[in-house]
Protein backbone atom coordinates (compact mmCIF):
# COMPACT_ATOMS: atom_id res chain seq x y z
CA UNK A 1 0.00 0.00 0.00
CA UNK A 2 2.81 2.41 0.93
CA UNK A 3 4.68 1.65 -2.33
CA UNK A 4 1.49 2.23 -4.34
CA UNK A 5 0.95 5.62 -2.68
CA UNK A 6 4.55 6.60 -3.35
CA UNK A 7 4.23 5.66 -7.02
CA UNK A 8 0.95 7.57 -7.30
CA UNK A 9 2.49 10.65 -5.69
CA UNK A 10 5.48 10.35 -8.00
CA UNK A 11 3.20 10.16 -11.01
CA UNK A 12 1.30 13.26 -9.92
CA UNK A 13 4.56 15.11 -9.35
CA UNK A 14 5.81 14.05 -12.78
CA UNK A 15 2.63 15.40 -14.44
CA UNK A 16 3.00 18.72 -12.65
CA UNK A 17 6.58 18.94 -13.82
CA UNK A 18 5.35 18.16 -17.33
CA UNK A 19 3.27 21.36 -17.13
CA UNK A 20 6.44 23.28 -16.25
CA UNK A 21 8.64 21.61 -18.86
CA UNK A 22 6.28 21.87 -21.83
CA UNK A 23 4.51 25.20 -21.28
CA UNK A 24 7.35 27.01 -23.05
CA UNK A 25 6.35 25.27 -26.29
CA UNK A 26 2.70 26.27 -25.82
CA UNK A 27 3.73 29.91 -25.38
CA UNK A 28 5.96 29.74 -28.46
CA UNK A 29 3.04 28.39 -30.49
CA UNK A 30 0.73 31.13 -29.16
CA UNK A 31 3.25 33.84 -30.09
CA UNK A 32 3.79 32.26 -33.51
CA UNK A 33 0.05 32.48 -34.19
CA UNK A 34 0.06 36.10 -32.98
CA UNK A 35 2.90 36.92 -35.39
CA UNK A 36 1.02 35.23 -38.22
CA UNK A 37 -2.27 36.99 -37.42
CA UNK A 38 -0.75 40.46 -37.02
CA UNK A 39 1.97 40.25 -39.67
CA UNK A 40 0.20 42.25 -42.36
CA UNK A 41 -1.25 44.84 -39.97
CA UNK A 42 1.61 45.25 -37.49
CA UNK A 43 4.77 43.13 -37.42
CA UNK A 44 5.36 43.37 -41.16
CA UNK A 45 4.91 47.15 -41.06
CA UNK A 46 7.20 48.13 -38.20
CA UNK A 47 9.34 50.26 -40.52
CA UNK A 48 6.30 52.29 -41.62
CA UNK A 49 4.52 55.15 -39.87
CA UNK A 50 2.00 53.77 -37.42
CA UNK A 51 -0.53 55.04 -34.90
CA UNK A 52 1.19 55.47 -31.54
CA UNK A 53 -1.64 53.65 -29.73
CA UNK A 54 -1.33 50.60 -31.98
CA UNK A 55 2.45 50.53 -31.60
CA UNK A 56 2.37 50.88 -27.81
CA UNK A 57 -0.12 48.03 -27.45
CA UNK A 58 1.84 45.91 -29.92
CA UNK A 59 5.02 46.43 -27.90
CA UNK A 60 3.24 45.60 -24.64
CA UNK A 61 1.66 42.42 -26.03
CA UNK A 62 4.92 41.31 -27.66
CA UNK A 63 6.76 41.88 -24.39
CA UNK A 64 4.15 39.78 -22.57
CA UNK A 65 4.48 36.87 -25.00
CA UNK A 66 8.29 37.00 -24.86
CA UNK A 67 8.19 37.19 -21.07
CA UNK A 68 5.94 34.12 -20.88
CA UNK A 69 8.32 32.22 -23.17
CA UNK A 70 11.37 33.37 -21.23
CA UNK A 71 9.88 32.60 -17.83
CA UNK A 72 8.74 29.13 -18.90
CA UNK A 73 12.17 28.45 -20.38
CA UNK A 74 13.88 29.49 -17.14
CA UNK A 75 11.68 27.06 -15.20
CA UNK A 76 12.47 24.31 -17.71
CA UNK A 77 16.18 25.03 -17.18
CA UNK A 78 15.63 25.12 -13.40
CA UNK A 79 16.79 28.73 -13.14
CA UNK A 80 14.25 29.48 -10.43
CA UNK A 81 16.03 32.49 -8.91
CA UNK A 82 16.35 34.23 -12.27
CA UNK A 83 12.71 33.32 -12.99
CA UNK A 84 11.58 35.09 -9.80
CA UNK A 85 13.76 38.11 -10.50
CA UNK A 86 12.72 38.61 -14.12
CA UNK A 87 9.10 37.88 -13.21
CA UNK A 88 8.99 41.32 -11.59
CA UNK A 89 8.87 42.72 -15.13
CA UNK A 90 5.25 41.57 -15.25
CA UNK A 91 4.39 44.31 -12.74
CA UNK A 92 5.17 46.76 -15.54
CA UNK A 93 4.08 44.82 -18.62
CA UNK A 94 0.64 43.66 -17.40
CA UNK A 95 -0.59 47.18 -16.47
CA UNK A 96 0.77 48.42 -19.81
CA UNK A 97 -1.32 45.81 -21.62
CA UNK A 98 -4.45 47.00 -19.81
CA UNK A 99 -3.74 50.71 -20.28
CA UNK A 100 -2.64 50.54 -23.91
CA UNK A 101 -5.41 48.06 -24.67
CA UNK A 102 -8.05 50.40 -23.21
CA UNK A 103 -6.55 53.31 -25.14
CA UNK A 104 -6.62 51.40 -28.43
CA UNK A 105 -10.11 50.02 -27.71
CA UNK A 106 -11.53 53.50 -27.24
CA UNK A 107 -9.93 54.69 -30.48
CA UNK A 108 -11.29 51.65 -32.33
CA UNK A 109 -14.85 51.98 -31.00
CA UNK A 110 -14.86 55.75 -31.64
CA UNK A 111 -14.65 54.95 -35.36
CA UNK A 112 -17.93 53.02 -35.15
CA UNK A 113 -21.47 54.35 -35.31
CA UNK A 114 -22.41 55.29 -31.76
CA UNK A 115 -25.61 53.90 -30.28
CA UNK A 116 -25.78 50.72 -32.36
CA UNK A 117 -25.78 47.19 -30.97
CA UNK A 118 -22.45 46.59 -32.69
CA UNK A 119 -20.99 49.63 -30.94
CA UNK A 120 -21.83 48.26 -27.48
CA UNK A 121 -20.86 44.73 -28.51
CA UNK A 122 -17.32 45.92 -29.29
CA UNK A 123 -17.10 47.89 -26.06
CA UNK A 124 -17.84 44.67 -24.16
CA UNK A 125 -15.49 42.58 -26.27
CA UNK A 126 -12.50 44.88 -26.00
CA UNK A 127 -12.83 46.23 -22.46
CA UNK A 128 -14.10 43.16 -20.61
CA UNK A 129 -11.35 41.02 -22.16
CA UNK A 130 -8.87 43.37 -20.44
CA UNK A 131 -10.70 42.92 -17.14
CA UNK A 132 -10.56 39.12 -17.52
CA UNK A 133 -6.84 39.31 -18.30
CA UNK A 134 -6.24 41.51 -15.25
CA UNK A 135 -8.16 39.11 -12.97
CA UNK A 136 -6.19 36.06 -14.14
CA UNK A 137 -2.88 37.90 -13.92
CA UNK A 138 -3.79 39.17 -10.44
CA UNK A 139 -4.59 35.62 -9.31
CA UNK A 140 -1.30 34.33 -10.70
CA UNK A 141 0.57 36.96 -8.68
CA UNK A 142 -1.55 36.31 -5.58
CA UNK A 143 -0.46 32.66 -5.77
CA UNK A 144 3.16 33.37 -6.73
CA UNK A 145 4.37 31.56 -3.59
CA UNK A 146 2.48 28.43 -4.69
CA UNK A 147 4.37 27.69 -7.92
CA UNK A 148 2.05 25.11 -9.46
CA UNK A 149 -1.05 27.23 -8.89
CA UNK A 150 0.82 30.33 -10.09
CA UNK A 151 1.84 28.49 -13.28
CA UNK A 152 -1.73 27.43 -14.02
CA UNK A 153 -3.11 30.94 -13.73
CA UNK A 154 -0.22 32.38 -15.74
CA UNK A 155 -0.90 29.94 -18.58
CA UNK A 156 -4.54 31.03 -18.53
CA UNK A 157 -3.73 34.72 -19.08
CA UNK A 158 -3.63 33.96 -22.82
CA UNK A 159 -7.30 32.92 -23.00
CA UNK A 160 -8.83 36.43 -22.95
CA UNK A 161 -6.44 37.30 -25.78
CA UNK A 162 -7.60 34.65 -28.26
CA UNK A 163 -10.10 36.54 -30.41
CA UNK A 164 -7.78 39.27 -31.75
CA UNK A 165 -5.68 36.43 -33.17
CA UNK A 166 -8.43 34.05 -34.31
CA UNK A 167 -10.51 36.86 -35.88
CA UNK A 168 -7.64 37.96 -38.13
CA UNK A 169 -6.64 34.44 -39.10
CA UNK A 170 -10.24 33.56 -40.02
CA UNK A 171 -10.77 36.69 -42.14
CA UNK A 172 -7.41 36.32 -43.91
CA UNK A 173 -6.92 32.57 -44.29
CA UNK A 174 -10.00 30.61 -43.20
CA UNK A 175 -12.90 32.51 -44.69
CA UNK A 176 -14.88 29.30 -45.20
CA UNK A 177 -15.75 29.49 -41.48
CA UNK A 178 -17.35 32.94 -41.73
CA UNK A 179 -20.76 31.79 -43.10
CA UNK A 180 -21.04 29.36 -40.16
CA UNK A 181 -21.45 32.07 -37.49
CA UNK A 182 -24.40 34.36 -36.75
CA UNK A 183 -24.41 38.00 -37.83
CA UNK A 184 -24.96 41.16 -35.80
CA UNK A 185 -25.89 44.24 -37.83
CA UNK A 186 -24.10 42.82 -40.84
CA UNK A 187 -20.96 41.70 -38.99
CA UNK A 188 -20.24 37.96 -38.71
CA UNK A 189 -19.54 37.11 -35.07
CA UNK A 190 -16.33 35.19 -35.78
CA UNK A 191 -15.38 35.77 -32.15
CA UNK A 192 -17.56 32.74 -31.41
CA UNK A 193 -14.92 30.54 -33.03
CA UNK A 194 -12.19 31.99 -30.81
CA UNK A 195 -14.45 31.54 -27.79
CA UNK A 196 -15.09 27.89 -28.73
CA UNK A 197 -11.35 27.23 -29.13
CA UNK A 198 -10.57 28.79 -25.74
CA UNK A 199 -13.39 26.84 -24.08
CA UNK A 200 -12.24 23.56 -25.63
CA UNK A 201 -8.69 24.04 -24.39
CA UNK A 202 -9.89 25.05 -20.93
CA UNK A 203 -12.17 22.01 -20.64
CA UNK A 204 -9.25 19.81 -21.69
CA UNK A 205 -7.04 21.36 -19.02
CA UNK A 206 -9.77 20.97 -16.40
CA UNK A 207 -10.27 17.27 -17.18
CA UNK A 208 -6.51 16.67 -17.29
CA UNK A 209 -5.99 18.41 -13.94
CA UNK A 210 -8.79 16.44 -12.29
CA UNK A 211 -7.65 13.08 -13.63
CA UNK A 212 -3.97 13.70 -12.89
CA UNK A 213 -4.14 15.62 -9.63
CA UNK A 214 -7.76 15.69 -8.44
CA UNK A 215 -7.52 19.49 -8.58
CA UNK A 216 -10.56 21.69 -9.12
CA UNK A 217 -9.16 24.90 -7.68
CA UNK A 218 -7.86 26.72 -10.78
CA UNK A 219 -9.33 25.75 -14.13
CA UNK A 220 -13.01 25.71 -13.04
CA UNK A 221 -12.60 29.27 -11.73
CA UNK A 222 -10.81 30.30 -14.92
CA UNK A 223 -13.72 28.81 -16.89
CA UNK A 224 -16.09 30.92 -14.78
CA UNK A 225 -14.10 34.11 -15.53
CA UNK A 226 -13.82 33.35 -19.25
CA UNK A 227 -17.43 32.17 -19.43
CA UNK A 228 -18.72 35.38 -17.82
CA UNK A 229 -16.56 37.41 -20.20
CA UNK A 230 -17.99 35.58 -23.21
CA UNK A 231 -21.55 35.80 -21.90
CA UNK A 232 -21.15 39.54 -21.34
CA UNK A 233 -19.89 40.06 -24.89
CA UNK A 234 -22.76 38.10 -26.41
CA UNK A 235 -25.60 39.60 -24.32
CA UNK A 236 -24.72 42.93 -22.68
CA UNK A 237 -25.23 44.99 -25.84
CA UNK A 238 -28.95 44.17 -25.60
CA UNK A 239 -29.43 45.86 -22.23
CA UNK A 240 -29.81 49.52 -21.31
CA UNK A 241 -27.56 49.24 -18.24
CA UNK A 242 -24.62 48.30 -20.48
CA UNK A 243 -25.36 51.18 -22.83
CA UNK A 244 -25.06 53.54 -19.86
CA UNK A 245 -21.79 51.89 -18.76
CA UNK A 246 -20.52 51.80 -22.33
CA UNK A 247 -21.19 55.49 -22.83
CA UNK A 248 -19.35 56.21 -19.57
CA UNK A 249 -16.37 54.10 -20.67
CA UNK A 250 -16.19 55.93 -23.98
CA UNK A 251 -16.32 59.28 -22.16
CA UNK A 252 -13.21 58.50 -20.10
CA UNK A 253 -10.04 60.40 -21.06
CA UNK A 254 -8.26 57.32 -22.37
CA UNK A 255 -7.55 58.41 -25.94
List keywords for this structure.
255 residues; mainly alpha
Describe the protein.
With 255 residues, the chain is an all-alpha fold. The chain has one domain. The protein is built from ten helices and two strands, in the order H-H-H-H-H-H-H-E-E-H-H-H. It has a two-stranded antiparallel sheet with strand order 1-2. Helix 1 crosses helix 7, helix 2 packs antiparallel against helix 3 and helix 7 packs across helix 8. It is globular. It starts with a helix and ends with a helix.
> How much of the polypeptide forms β-strand, as a percent range?
under 5%
In which range does the helix fraction lie?
over 70%
How is the largest sheet built, in terms of strand order? 1-2
Q: Structural class, judged by helices and strands?
A: mainly alpha
Low-confidence stretches: 1-12
Distance between the termini: 64 Å
How many structural domains are formed by the residues?
Answer: 1
What count of helical segments does DSSP give? 10
Shape: globular
- Major sheet, described briefly? 2 strands, antiparallel
Amino acid sequence: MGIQKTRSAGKRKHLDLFLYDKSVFAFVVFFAFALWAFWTSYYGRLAEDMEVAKHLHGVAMSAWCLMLIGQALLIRLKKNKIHKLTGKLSYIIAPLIVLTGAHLAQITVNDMEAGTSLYYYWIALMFISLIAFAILYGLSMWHRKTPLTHARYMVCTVFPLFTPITDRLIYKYFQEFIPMVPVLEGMPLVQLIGFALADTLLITLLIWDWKAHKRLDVFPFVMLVIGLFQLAVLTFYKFSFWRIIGDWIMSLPLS
